[in-house]
Amino acid sequence: MQDERGALKRPLGLRLWLSGSWLTLLFFAALFAPLIAPKDPLMQDLFLGRMPPFWESGAEPGFWLGTDSLGRDVLSRIVYGARLTLIVAFVAGVLTCIIGATLGLIAGYYRGWADRIISRFVDIWMAFPPILFAILLIAVLGPGLFSIIIAIIIIDWTRFARVIRAEAMSQGAMDYVASAQVAGRTKLDTMLSEILPNVLPTIIALLTLEMGIGVIVEAILSFVNLSISTDSPTWGGMISEGRTSIHQAWWVLVFPLITLFLTVLSFSQLGEGLKDRFDPVLR
Fold first, then answer.
1. In the 3-class helix/strand/coil scheme, how is 25-44 assigned residue by residue?
2. pLDDT per residue over 66-92, tens digit each?
3. Considering the entire predicted model, what is its pTM?
4. Domains, the chain, ranges and CATH?
């Protein structure tokens, strides 16, 4: 039995370590971008356009991952692009979590008219295609960081509300909740002190997943030029540019695409790992 538990913990620990390490590296790269980035991400030099990475022949010293069609350093633009990506991921993810999880807890535990109103509102809201809805909101609000965050919150709060509602309903039927009510504790106190800790692992998993979704949404909006200014480095904008020159300069597309993939995967794996680690039932 101990060998089986050890075999289960090893992949979990490795998953947490790898995903956490990548996100930590990305966070510090974004935080200290002016010190880490080898070049100015906006500096253009047409004479250095589409220079290959350092290991290929014809590479220019100092441009480790090559340059784009305007001679801008790819590595520096990836590092600076991480700033916008992480701001959108954390701010939009946390605000979406607070709104959706709160409504889900209220609907799942209080039931009655509160559940009926919130559930019907969630059903109506989820009928809209999310990406098209996001593009419509950005078109109305105008491109910008604030607009992206608002669009993600408006679209994705329903994900938290629906899942947390189901979890709260399941926990509300447990004996420990009935015991708390018999002991004279109020519904609000029972919800915060008894139900919330037991659904917290699910909230954490959804939060990290939502951060990954925020990264994808920002990249999609950047790809179609609906994010911030086109001069500012964004991963989606780099992918859009690299798509048009994939045969002449593959590195302009591949490196930001790999960074985007690893970031989304790390958020997803981190959430699943934390849920398994802190789930009171599994423990």
1. HHHHHHHCHHHHCCCCCCCC
2. 898 888 999 999 999 999 899 999 999
3. 0.84
4. 2-278 (1.10.3720.10)
